[in-house]
Amino acid sequence: MTPIVVNSSSESRSMAVIVFAGGLILALSFGIRSVFGGFLDNLSNDLFGGRVEVLSFSIAIQNLIWGLAQPAFGMVADRFGDRRALWLGFGCYAAGMVLCIAAMSPIALHLGAGVLVGMGISGTAFGVVLAVIGRAAPVEKREYYLGLASALGSVGQVLLPLLASWLTEWLDWRVALAVIAAMLVPMALCIPLLRVQDSPLAPTNTALTDCAGSISLAQTVKEAFRQPSYVLLCIGFSVCGFHLAFITAHLPTYVQYFCSSTSMSPEELRTFGLRALSVVGLANIFGTLLASKLGLMLPKSHVLAGIYALRAVIITISISFPITPTSVIVFATAMGVLWLSTVPLTSGLVLNMFGPQAMGTLFGFVFLSHPVWKLYWSLVGWRMVRSLLRLRVNLVSFNWARFTICRNSPTSKRAATLTANCVRV
Predict the structure, then answer these.
(1) Residue 2 lies in a domain
(2) Do 345 and 300 touch, CB atoms closer than 8 A?
(3) Contacting residues for 206 by C-beta, under 8 A, at least 6 apart
(4) Which residues lie below 8 Å from residue 350, measured CB to CB, with a gap of 6+?
(5) Is 104's pLDDT higher than 70?
(6) Which of 107, 392, 42 lies closest to 246, judged by CA?
């Protein structure tokens, strides 16, 4: 068979389309979910007499379903095609947003904002999109493209909270949420652009190709969990969900509670909290690109350890001093640099260990470690902001636990042996 020759300009154009489409899908998926915390007060006051725990529980369900469904969507992508998994995720996301807008009871809100949106995020987030890019990218540039797509995904967290803060000032919360939900339309337009199976850019590793399909997906997962490095990666990644859920769901309320002594009104403080989320997203663009660059120069496990150690330091400092609007912006900027910078490093480790063939499934199982702490902080985080001492103990102890796990993670020698023995999907 005559090999396909792809010149550099053709390669760059094709990857630019794939990375842009994937990055936009990530931006919309994460941007939309990041605005729910900004609707906490308005929605709770309108429907449930100010009981914020109802929407908090919906967000907890959303985070739990997101994590639990991630391996399933990864398997759908690996077995039946990436775009089918993406369309399924898009359908769940759209249905969930519609039900959330129309919700009049806690059950409807839990089903819409919780179950369906959680499934939608699973089908349109990192587990599926980064698997597409990992399969399409040339091996020598794979981590660069993963980092670039992850950075583009942060743009949604910059823009959509700003849009939500403006909309909620002028519109009823249902109308504002409907406008946010309309942002799913560009996502649907991007899904057809993620054509990987027909792309000449897919990796051409012959060993990979020969053994693809020689072992079942279940056997591949079983072999992966025999690798200590992979197991520790799954355990350690749970702390990322611990931070992500608390900050995304409760930072606006946290700001409103602790900055209440300032001259800002409650409405201004809520808007300021949403804008702080945008600062997190903006800083994360640069942090993700920097982490990807460092991951090419240094051992990825060491870079991950450094990221979580820095998070521990930043959180310790931030809760050791009075909370002011200035300190909130400093905290949001510092945490933003370290926010999702873990994702390209973690996905890169999975790719290095096992290759791109089962990337969706194996990264999905890594992500499965998120739900426990996502559930915990989404559900009770609104109470934790009223207990600063307990917040300090939990955040700092788990950050240092994650640092220890990453730093002492075994090397990937056994993973290299697995690759050499051609144990792949």
Answers:
(1) no
(2) yes
(3) none
(4) 230, 233, 359, 362, 363, 366
(5) yes
(6) 392
pLDDT at residue 355 is higher than 80:
no
Residue 59 and residue 32 in contact, taking contact as beta carbons nearer than 8 Å: no
CA 192 – CA 146 distance, rounded (Å):
19
| Alpha-carbon separation of residue 104 from 49, 101, 109 (angstroms) | 12, 9, 8
Write out the two tokens for 326: 């200035």
Two structure tokens written together for 82 = 């990436």
User: Looking at the domain assignment, is residue 140 inside a domain?
Assistant: yes
- The residues, any chain, with a CB within 8 Å of residue 324's CB and separated by 6 or more, are 259, 262
Do 304 and 346 contact (CB within 8 A), yes or no? yes
- Tell me, what CATH number does 200's domain have? 1.20.1250.20
Task: Give CA–CA dist 238/329, Å, rounded.
Answer: 26
> In this predicted structure, what is the pLDDT of residue 374?
60
Residue 207 has pLDDT above 60, yes or no: no
How confident is the model over 266-321, as pLDDT tens digits?
677 777 877 887 888 888 888 888 988 888 888 888 898 889 889 888 888 887 77
Say how far apart CA 410 and CA 408 lie, in whole Å: 6
Residues 54-65 as b/e (b if ≥16 CB within 10 A, e otherwise) read: bbbbbbbbbbbb
Tell if the pTM clears 0.85, that is, is over it.
Answer: no
Asked whether residue 358 is domain-assigned, the answer is yes
Q: What backbone phi and psi angles, to 5 degrees, belong to 52?
A: -70, -15
Instruction: Report the share of the chain in percent with pLDDT over 90.
Output: 11
Q: What is d(CA 277, CA 243) in angstroms, rounded to the nearest whole number?
A: 13
User: Which sign does the torsion angle of CA 35, 41, 42, 47 carry?
Assistant: positive
The answer to whether position 4 is within a domain reads: no
Question: How many separate domains does the chain show?
Answer: 1
Give the separation between CA 274 and CA 277, rounded to whole angstroms: 5
